[in-house]
Amino acid sequence: MSENRTEPRLLCASLVELRRRDRTRRQSRQIVNLEDISLSGACIASDHRLPLNTPVVLDYINGQLPGVVRYSQYQDGTYFMGIRFSFGCKWADDCFQPEHLLDVQEIFKSR
User: Fold this and answer.
1) Largest alpha-carbon pair distance within the chain?
2) Is residue 4 part of a domain?
3) Residue 110 has what pLDDT?
């Protein structure tokens, strides 16, 4: 899979709620694991696959990040899905700080 992000991604581990509407327009909710995050998108891990271009909302304690599913990859019983945040929505670490956050680029710079 090619790298399409223009901002650095930060590895993280945090549970967030994912909301979406199904084909009948009913809202569904599920808890997913946030795998990494950048200013304009995130990767989540879930037991359930979502179709590409599905509108979703990632809910966290102090707010939400709306977006759309851009890719889905199945690996070892888990679906890893890329979420591109909606135009004008950006992640800010002063609004949402995942439980575990690791800037891999900073680690390699210090070596």
Assistant:
1) 53
2) no
3) 55
